[in-house]
Structure formats: structure tokens, C-alpha cells
Amino acid sequence: MKGGSVFPVRLQFSKVGKVRWTSHRDIARMFERAFRILELPLEFSEGFSPHPKVSFGLALSTGYESNEEYLDVSLAQVIDLETLPERLTTALPAGITVLRAVVLHDRVPALQETVTAANWIVEVARDDDVALGLDEFQTAVDAALARDEITIRRSRKGKLVDDDVRGAIRHFRATVDPVSGGIVCDLEVSTQPRSAKPCDVLAAIMQVTPAIGPLVERRVLRVHQWIERDGARLSPLDADARPHAASARAS
Amino acid sequence: MSDLWPRIEPLLAKVEKPARYIGMERGSQQPVWAPHKVAWLLIYPDTYEIGLPNQGLQILYEILNERGDAVAERSYAPWTDMAGSMRSKGLPLFSVDTHRSAADFDVLAFNLSAELVFTNVLEMVDLAGVPVRNVDRRPEHPIVIAGGHSTFNPEPLADYVDAFVIGEGEEVVSEITEVLAAWKKGGRADREAALHDLALIPGVYVPSMYHVEYDGMAIAAIEPRYDDVPAKVDKRTVADLDEWPYPKNQLVPLIEVVHDRLNVEVFRGCTRGCRFCQAGMITRPVRERSEESVRTMVAEGLRRTGYDEVALTSLSTADFSGIEGVVANLVNDQPGTGQVSLSLPSLRVDAFTVGLASQIQKVRRTGLTFAPEAGSWRLRQVINKLVLEEDLYAAVDSAYSSGWRRMKLYFLTGLPTEVDEDTLGIAELARNCVEIGRKYNKQASVTVSVGGFVPKAHTPFQWFGQNGADELRRKIGLLRDDLRPRRGSGAKNQKLSNQVNLKWHDPEATFAEGICSRGDRRVGRVIERVWRAGGTFQEWSEHFDLQRWLDACEAEGLDPQWFATRHRHVDEILPWDHITAGLHKDFLWLDWQEALAEHGLPDCRWTPCYDCGVCTDYALEHVVASPIAPAGGSQGTNQDWSNQDGVAVRFLGRKPRPERPASDENAAPAAPVSVAALVPESGILS
């Protein structure tokens, strides 16, 4: 988190169930209200219109779920981090569960810049309800992965841009879900310099093999985010944290 | 009785703002259903973002769920994309709390705060799988109820709604619940008997219990069909707001909505007496919440919701006796972290108000809104918005000098007696405000927002024929031309005009609103046709098309002008004459005559009573904590209106009050009537 802070905290939380239909901005407002409900000692930005210093990680698209989201918040005092996740969870809507809280070193890089990879589980089906076979789907995936570059048109910050998606796909494996019988994919993407969302990856597959579509994602779950630094692959909770026991008791 | 969520969720990926349909707000409930409980579905017939903050709905939601014999859930109008998906998948209207089908409920209770939502009521009843016309409903169908300000003329929906609640709902919902619990216990067999029982509850109007007789287009009589059903339905009024500190758990939505903040109602009713304002007329008398109670609701509300903004709501918040105490308390010692900002909607136009505003808006001083409503002092006397030009300029000067950079001014056009000079006065006022602002800030700007006036039931203007769409368009055109940079108007004038941003409401929508606002039962079929032709969300410009309304009127053989632009006759039976807000018709008529005579009428909280009828008939006094008028006197203008001609209020068959000017009971009021065209032909009070 930029700027000095008395007690910079990183939170890990999940977003699952009905609440997935809220947006990234909605989540930000929910947390700001939860912080006020708990009367946390927030630090505020300077200037004309002071805002609490809260910094969110990678955006999660409306409709997607996640086991691992992150946000950083600057506090003006040391507080008990043991009970914080549970207390915050009670002040948040059902489906948002704060899992862990760690105290950060001073002036660590922002989550959006430092997270380099993410893992997803994606349920895929055909939008026209035609049965989608694993073999034909895997063939289409392999065809896409064989390309060096797949440019798709997508909307970014309200503008249509042409982006290469292939470069962000690190790993893609489709299996059949033993319970539902549907197709479930393990996907790993790079998030730097530019990420690809699961819907972008499906668009890329359809672009290479149009006959496989129309594909639609049924349920999309982000399962991990990674900070890769100096050859190590770290959880955002570990990468920039101060040793927990010492920091939580410091005063 | 099942959870529809598994069928709803697959639709959400393809609709706009899917979180409109998920519920889960902080403060929302998952009521426990039981066979003996009366299940209410409280419905706001507009989008979730507009409906969620509605305080009336939230109050009833809490009161009903506190009862052992009721459950209450909520529903909002699905946007057209969602409604389309629901119809194509055969999915009925559902509650957002437990996602149950609307048909599982015993009551569908609509909040009607504006007439243009009427077609959405039909849309939602239909989506619920319930016949839209009340005669077609059978024992298995829920009872369709409506409340809210627009039910003060319930007639346009008389064939579609089973029972209307007139006035405030806090107490009457319990009485309705008891009647319906008995009906439910008897197996919901006799719908007619249940409706009859509902009609006996004070404040409940069951249109099917009344027969309307016509004489051509005129109404000849409106009569109850049973001896025990009241000939006149009186509104319900809660005497003491401190007994009803609701909502206690204001809902905190997960998505952004209008008025997205803690809202605490500081008083109900208004005696400013603005003649165009239905809300002010139908909510009398003034009942303030105690300062202590307001403070508690603010402190607890902020703690529970996590909001950092609170609005003190009422029809004129600067008039609240405890305003300075509450503001000082909020600004100085609000517990918790961060900053709490306070907003005061519906402010008076005066320097006191700006003083208050600067106390509370220490940080962001971007915009401030005033509502002079009319462009000339003459016309402001007609509408009884007694704001002098000096008051407005003092307020504006004070605002710009305290650091505000943008001013918003609200006006109405198409007001009674309005001539072009009055309309153009709006442009002149706006330029003068810009000029004041430029003393302090070269970028000072003024936004002028102009709405077309629609006369409303139970106001002194209920007899006035509103301006047609063409006339309103012409008036807006006058303003546009006057504010358009042009040769010969002088460089200064041009510079000032450039800083005025003019916005206006669609005159065609104003016309459609006028058809409904004072329509009778026959207008119901017009509304039904508009709905069947796809006319939902009529308050949304992208969905509004006047042609649908004109076609519907034609198909029904009704002249829309007859409802909207026709001046009413003094002898005429008005479609809402069997409904009363406590205001005597004589008072309203005389106030209408005073309006035409350009006479203002000071606020009765701090002047003698005008016998409007409300306090005397309900045996309620204005509940005002302070016996002295707030700083600035009547209307906050520092003007003494007591030497003006008072309104000559007299009642047929009643002695005039001794302090009133004596006059002949049967003669016209002392004041001359200035605009001949607006005076109905017959004698006054004959």
C-alpha cells in the first residue's frame, strides 16, 4: 500500500452465492460501510474530499465467484487481527466471508500491480443447450492453445479494443464433472501486463473454432491469486506480510 | 410455496443490474411463514433503485414483520429486460427476500407515489399471475391493495385495485391484517365479504363497494352500495411520530440506489400552504418528531447501517423546530470513525438555510438547490410560495460567498394565471443568480430545472385546467430562446445566459400524468390499453410515448383534454369527492379564489387558523416543538404578512370566526378575481 501507514492490513475474503451478482464497486462500498459499522480506526486521504485509504485487488466481474479476493486498508491504530475476520463478516452481506487478516510491511506494492497470476474453475456449456462433448471441446481448446496469438475484441473501460488473449493463458484443462456431467475447466492466467477473463478465453476458443459455440460460462470461481517474485510463488497474504504474532501485538 | 431462485438465477447473467433481484440488504428479513399468518408482498412499482429507499414501504415491512400474525416481503418492478425473460420462461413475479412467487402471498400491496407508475401496477399484477381487473379475481387470488399519495384520487385504478389505503399506513395495516387473518381462517372463501369488511376499516376505500353514476361525461353521483359502507372515506393520520420510530433497521442496499443514505423523517405535514403541492395539503397537520427521538434515530441508524451520510427528511426541513440542535449535535459529536455528512432536502429559500447548509457541508460545497417555483413575485403569490426576490438573492449570495459553486433552481411552468412575463422571469432570475455568483467565482453556474405543472386532487388547484403539451412546449421554447446567446442582447446578458443550464421535463409526459391525476374510473381502461400496448415504465423517457395514451383515449371514446386541460366547475362532483384528506372543499375553493386574486397566505403554524378543516376534524393540533416561528418569520423571509388581506374562509352553515373579515356568506370573496378566463362560469359557493 502506498504511503506510510500506522497499521496497514491485508484482508482475504470470499464472494460466493447470490452476492456474486454485485459489482466490484458494490463490494468496495460494502466494505467501507462494514469498516464504519465496526468503527475501525481508518486512515483518510488528504485533500478536498477525504476518503478512507482502501485499495482493492484485481476486479472480479459481476456474476463471478471467488474463494480468494484481497483488499488492503490503512488503519490509524493497531487492532486485534484475530477477531477481525469474524467481526467484519457479520457486517457484510451473506456470501462475503473475510477469511484472514495480516499486517503488511510499510509501503508494499499495490495488489493490482503485484498479483501476477490467477487460477479459475469454469463450468462451460453451450448457450443453445446443445450437449457439449468433452472431446470436441478439448480439441477446440488444443487448437486455441496451439496458436501464438488470438486477438479478440473486448470492452475495456467503456471502449472496444483488440487484445491478444492467448498470451495470458498459461494452463487450460477440461474435465467432466462427475456430479453434474457438465464440463469443468481448470484455468490459469497471467494477470500482468494484461489479464484475460474466463469469458475472454471462451471467446478466444470460439474464434479459433467457431463451430464449438455458442459457449457460455455457467459458474465461474476464482480459486487462487499469486504474487510471483524472484522465482517464488506466494499467496498475497504471505508476500508482503509482517510476522503476524509480533505485528498484532505491537503497540 | 417454493424458492424460485434456481429458476431466477440463470436469467441474471443477461440482464442489466442483476443485483436488483437478489435482495440480501442489511436490515432485510427472512420471515418465517405459517398457515395462519397473513402474507404481504409490499411492492414498489418502479425499479429497485427508485423503490428500495422508499421509507413508507420500509416502515410497513418492519411493522408487519413484528406482528405474530403477518409476514411481509418486498418486490420491485423488474426492468423490461428481466420482465421479458421472466415471461419467456414462465417465471412469475417474485419477492426479493425469499424469492417466492407473488401468488403465494395473501396481499399484493402497492405503493403509489406517482401516477405514471399506474401501468406498472397492471404489469406486476399480471406478472404475478393475477387477473388485472378486480372483477375477474377469484378466491385463490391475493387481495390487491394500494397506498401512497396517489391514492388520494384512487379512481383511475378503481377497477384494478381491490382496496386503497388513504393516508398513513402505520396503524391501518394491522387492522387490515386482522380482517384478512379471519378471511384466511375461513378458507378464503368469500372474497366479497372480506372486501366488505375491509371497507368498514377507517381509511380503507374499496372501490367495488361504491357505485358511480354518470350524466354524460359528468359524474352524477358516487354512492356506497351498502348502508354500512361510509359515504366518505377519511384519511388515516398517525398522531404521534415518536410512537412510530420506524424504520428501525433501514435497509442498506448492495447496489447504488437513489437517496443512498440514512434517512430520518423529522416531521410530517406542512402548513406552508403552497397551493400546487399535494403532499403539503394531504399530510396535514404538522407533526414533528421530538429532537431527542431524531437524535437517537440518527445515532443508532448510522451505527447500524454504516452509512456516512444522513438526510433529515420532511417537506421543509429547515422548518423543523429542533433543526439547529440536531445539526449542531451531528456536526460536533458524532461517534464513530470518519466523517458524517448531512443533507437537508426540501430547503426553504433563505439565508438561514444557507447558514445551516454551511454548518453541515464543511467539506464538499459543490451544489445547493432552491425551489422558487415561479419566475415572478406575482405568480409566487398565486401559488403561495412566498419567496421574495431579495430572499432568493440573499440566499444565493450567501451560498456563493460561502464557497458553493453551483446552484440548482426548481421551477414549475403552466401554473394558474401564468403569462409569458412570469415564464421569462425564470430566465431573468437565473441570470441574476449567475451575476451574483460571478462576484465570487467566475465559473459560477446555475441549473434551472423546469417541470410542467399538473394539478392534483385535494389542492386548491384541483379545479384548474392544466396547460396542454403544446402550450408547455411553447413556454419552454420561450425560455430556451431567452437563454440562447443572441445578437442585440448585450454582451453581459449573453455571458450570464451562457452560465445558465436549462433542463425541462417532457411536456408530453406531463400531459399523460394529467390524464391520470384527475381522471375518473373511465380512465382505468385507458391505463389498461397503454399497458397492453407495452407502455410500462412511463416515468422513463426511453419507454414513454404519448401516442399510446392518445390511441388508448381514442379507443375508449374519451377526450384526454377533458381530463387534463379542462377547468373544473365549482358545482362539479369531482371523482375523488368521496375521499377526504380532512381539507374542507370550501376551504380549498376559497384558497383557489385567493390564488386567482394573487393573495398569499402565511403559514398557520404561527398565525391564526384558516379553518382548513384538518386539525378541527381530527382533533389534532400541529405538533411543533417550538412556539415561535423559525428564524426569518413566515416562509423564512423576514416579511410580515399579517397586514395582508387574510383569506376569507367561511363555511356554509357555519358562523364565520369573529376575527375574520365579515362578509356575505353567498357572495364572492372580497378579493377581486383577476384572471377572468380561469373563473368557472357559475357563482361562487352557490
Can you describe this structure?
Chain A is an alpha+beta fold and 251 residues long. Chain A has two domains: 7-114 and 233-249, Pseudouridine synthase I, catalytic domain, N-terminal subdomain (Alpha-Beta Plaits); 117-228, Alpha-Beta Plaits (2-Layer Sandwich), CATH 3.30.70. In chain A, 23% of the residues lie in helices and 35% in strands. Chain A has helices spanning 24-37, 84-90, 111-114, 134-145, 198-208, 236-239, 244-249; strands at 7-15, 54-56, 65-75, 96-103, 117-126, 151-156, 159-164, 169-176, 183-190, 215-229, 232-234. In chain A, the strands form two sheets. In chain A, strands 1, 2, 3, 4, 5, 8, 9, 10 and 11 form a nine-stranded mixed sheet that branches. Chain A has a two-stranded antiparallel ribbon with strand order 6-7. In chain A, a hairpin with a 2-residue loop joins β6 (151-156) and β7. In chain A, α4 crosses α5 (198-208). Chain A is elongated. Residues 246-251 of chain A have low confidence and may be disordered. With 686 residues, chain B is α/β, with parallel strands linked by helices. Among the domains of chain B are: 5-225, Cobalamin-binding domain (Rossmann fold), CATH 3.40.50.280; 465-566, no CATH class. Helix content of chain B is 32%, strand content 13%. Chain B has 22 helices and 19 strands. The longest helix of chain B has 19 residues, at 420-438. Chain B is globular and about 75 Å long. Chain B starts with a helix and ends in a 68-residue tail after the last helix. Mean pLDDT of chain B is 88; it is low at 632-686.
